[in-house]
C-alpha cells in the first residue's frame, strides 16, 4: 500500500513537472528554439537551437543566433561565441557553414555533410549574426542600417549575451570565450570590453575567460603598412609601386589622398592579376562559371582599409560563395531555423553591402583594448593564416609589436600531425600563432591545424612543440 502511494506521488510529481516545463516554454524558453532537423542534414547526436533575441525594443532590433552544442558532455564544455567580420558578414554563412561549424553545405545546396574538424567536438558553439542587418538579424527601423558602426554592434552584442543567458540559464556560469576573424578583430575585443564593464556592477557577472581572433583587423596604420609590405615581400607588386605607396600614402586615415588611391588601384588592376586575395596561392573562381571573383572587387570597401576589395570569400572551391545564399534563402530551411519570422523585406545574403558601405564608426586601433584585456587577466590569442593578403600576417605582426610585450616562450614551430602547422611565440598575456599555408579563413583552409589551435587556446597551453 505504502509502495503504491509512493508511486502515485511520483507520477503526480512527474506530471506536474511536465506541465511546468510546458508553461515555461510558452514564455520564450529555449525549447521554442530547438532545431529538430535541418533540410538535408545528416543525423547527429548533439542538440541545436536557433532563434532571435531582441536587443532593442524601441527600434525593434533582434539578433539571430545558432547554437550547436558540443558533441559530448555539453554541460562540461565551455561556451564559445563566433563572429565574422565584413563589417556586414554573417557568421552563419562563414563561421558555421564553411569554417568551424559541424556542417558544410554540399555543391547543390540541397544537403549538409559533417565537418569532422568542427570546433563543436570540444565546445558549445554560438554563432551570432551581428549587427542587426546581417543575415537573419534585423531591425524594424530601417535607418539603423545607415548608421550602425562598432559602437552599436558592441552594445547590442552585450545585450544579446545578457538576454541569451536568461533564455539558457544552464550556461550562466559557464566559461565563455569570444572568437572570430577579420573585421571581428574589432567586434571580439569590443564585446569583451563591454562584458568587463558590465561585470563591474552585475549581480551575476559573465564568466568571460578569453578571446581569440584570426587575420584580425587591429590597427589602421600598422595593418596598412603591413599589408603593402606583404604584397611586396610576396612579389605581388613591383619595387616601384611599393616605394611609391610607402612615400605617398598616410596609412592612418580612412580616406587616403587621390594620389595614394590611384597607386592602390594600379597595384590591384595592373600588378596583382586574377588571384584570390584571401589566399594568394589558391586558384581563383572561374568567372564564366557564374561567380564574381573580381567583378565585385571594387564594389565594397572595408572602412579601415579604403583600398581594399571587399568581396565574398572564396575557399578551396573558390566558387562556393553562392551555396549558402541558395540554402539559407529556402523557406524550409528558414522554418527549421526559426529564422525570418517577421518577413524581412530583402533576401538573406552572406554579407550586407548596405551595412558595409554606411559603416558609421570604427576604432582606429584596438591595441588599447588588448592592453586592458591582458591587464584584467583575460586570455588573448591572435592567429594568422600566412597566405592571406587582405589582413596579412605582416600586418598583425607590425601591430602586435606595438604592444612591446615580454616574451615568455620564444618563437618556435608548432606541430600538427607531424607537420609544421605554423609558428608561435608566447608573450606575457598574449599568444601569437601563424597557420602555415592558410588563407584568410583559417579553419576553411587548414581545418585540422585550426582545431589544434582552438584546443590549445581553450586549454590555455602553448601549441605542441614536438612532432606528434
Ligand atoms: C518588428 O516588427 C514586427 C512586425 O510589426 C513585429 O512582429 C516584431 O516583433 C518586431 N521586432 C522587434 C524586435 O520588435
Ligand atoms: C547534397 O545533399 C542532398 C541531400 O542529402 C543529396 O540528395 C545530394 O545528392 C547532394 N549533392 C551533392 C552534389 O553532394
Ligand atoms: C572557365 O570555365 C569555362 C566554362 O566552364 C571553361 O570553358 C574555361 O576553360 C574555364 N577557364 C579556366 C581558366 O579554367
Ligand atoms: C524573409 O521572408 C520573405 C518572405 O516572407 C522573403 O521575401 C525574404 O527574402 C526573406 N528574407 C530573409 C533575410 O530571409
Ligand atoms: C556614429 O559615430 C559617431 C562618432 O563617429 C558617434 O558619436 C555616434 O554615436 C555614432 N552613431 C551611432 C548610431 O552609433
UniProtKB/TrEMBL annotation:
Enzyme kind, highest EC tier: hydrolase
UniProt-listed Pfam families: Peptidase_S10 (PF00450)
Subcellular location: Secreted
The protein's Enzyme Commission number: 3.4.16.-
The keyword Ribosomal protein belongs to this UniProt entry's keyword annotation: no
InterPro entries listed in its UniProt record: AB_hydrolase_fold, Peptidase_S10, Ser_caboxypep_his_AS, Ser_caboxypep_ser_AS
Keyword Acyltransferase carried by entry: no
One CC-aspect GO term: extracellular region
GO MF terms, alphabetically ordered: serine-type carboxypeptidase activity
Keywords of this entry: Carboxypeptidase, Disulfide bond, Glycoprotein, Hydrolase, Protease, Secreted, Signal
Signal peptide start-end: 1-28
Gene Ontology biological process terms in this record: proteolysis
Family: Belongs to the peptidase S10 family.
Protein name: Carboxypeptidase
Organism per entry: Pisum sativum (Garden pea)
Amino acid at each position: 500500500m505504502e509502495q503504491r502511494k509512493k508511486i502515485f506521488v511520483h507520477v503526480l510529481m512527474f506530471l506536474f513537472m511536465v506541465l511546468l516545463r510546458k508553461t515555461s516554454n510558452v514564455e520564450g524558453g529555449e525549447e521554442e528554439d530547438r532545431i529538430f532537423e535541418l533540410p538535408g542534414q545528416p543525423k547527429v547526436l548533439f542538440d541545436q537551437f536557433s532563434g532571435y533575441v531582441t536587443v532593442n525594443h524601441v527600434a525593434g532590433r533582434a539578433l539571430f543566433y545558432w547554437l550547436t552544442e558540443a558533441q559530448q558532455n555539453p554541460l562540461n564544455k565551455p561556451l564559445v561565441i563566433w563572429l565574422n567580420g565584413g563589417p556586414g558578414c554573417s557568421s552563419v554563412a562563414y563561421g558555421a557553414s564553411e569554417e568551424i561549424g559541424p556542417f558544410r553545405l554540399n555543391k547543390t545546396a540541397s544537403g549538409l555533410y559533417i565537418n569532422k574538424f568542427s570546433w563543436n567536438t570540444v565546445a558549445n558553439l554560438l554563432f551570432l549574426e551581428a549587427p542587426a542587418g546581417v543575415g537573419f538579424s534585423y531591425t524594424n527601423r530601417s535607418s539603423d542600417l545607415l548608421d550602425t558602426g562598432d559602437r552599436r554592434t558592441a552594445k547590442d552584442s552585450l545585450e544579446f549575451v545578457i538576454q541569451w543567458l536568461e533564455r539558457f540559464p544552464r550556461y550562466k556560469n559557464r566559461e565563455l570565450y569570444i572568437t572570430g576573424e577579420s573585421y571581428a578583430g574589432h567586434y571580439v575585443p569590443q564585446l569583451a570590453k563591454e562584458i568587463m564593464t558590465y561585470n563591474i556592477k552585475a549581480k551575476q557577472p559573465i564568466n568571460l575567460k578569453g578571446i581569440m581572433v584570426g587575420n584580425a583587423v587591429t590597427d589602421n596604420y600598422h595593418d596598412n603598412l603591413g599589408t603593402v609590405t606583404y604584397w611586396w615581400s610576396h612579389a605581388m607588386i613591383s619595387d616601384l609601386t611599393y616605394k611609391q605607396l610607402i612615400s605617398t600614402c598616410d596609412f592612418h586615415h580612412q580616406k587616403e589622398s587621390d594620389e595614394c588611391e590611384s597607386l592602390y588601384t594600379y597595384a590591384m588592376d595592373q600588378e596583382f592579376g586574377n588571384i584570390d586575395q584571401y589566399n594568394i596561392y589558391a586558384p581563383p573562381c572561374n568567372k564564366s562559371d557564374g561567380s564574381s571573383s573580381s567583378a565585385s572587387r571594387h564594389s565594397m570597401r572595408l572602412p579601415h582599409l579604403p583600398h581594399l576589395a571587399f568581396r565574398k570569400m572564396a575557399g578551396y572551391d573558390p566558387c562556393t560563395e553562392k551555396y549558402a545564399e541558395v540554402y539559407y534563402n529556402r523557406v524550409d530551411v528558414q522554418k527549421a531555423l526559426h529564422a525570418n519570422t517577421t518577413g524581412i523585406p530583402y533576401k538573406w545574403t552572406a554579407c550586407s553591402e548596405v551595412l558595409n558601405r554606411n559603416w558609421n564608426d570604427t576604432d582606429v586601433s584596438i591595441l588599447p583594448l588588448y592592453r586592458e584585456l591582458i591587464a584584467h587577466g583575460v586570455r588573448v590569442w591572435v592567429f594568422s593564416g600566412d597566405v592571406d593578403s587582405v589582413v596579412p600576417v605582416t600586418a598583425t605582426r607590425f601591430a602586435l609589436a606595438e604592444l612591446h610585450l615580454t616574451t615568455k616562450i620564444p618563437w618556435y614551430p608548432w606541430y600538427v600531425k607531424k607537420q609544421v602547422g605554423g609558428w608561435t611565440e608566447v608573450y606575457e598575456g598574449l599568444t601569437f600563432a601563424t597557420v602555415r599555408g592558410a588563407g584568410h579563413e583559417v579553419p576553411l583552409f587548414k581545418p585540422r591545424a585550426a582545431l589544434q589551435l582552438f584546443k590549445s587556446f581553450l586549454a590555455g597551453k602553448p601549441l605542441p612543440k614536438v612532432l606528434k
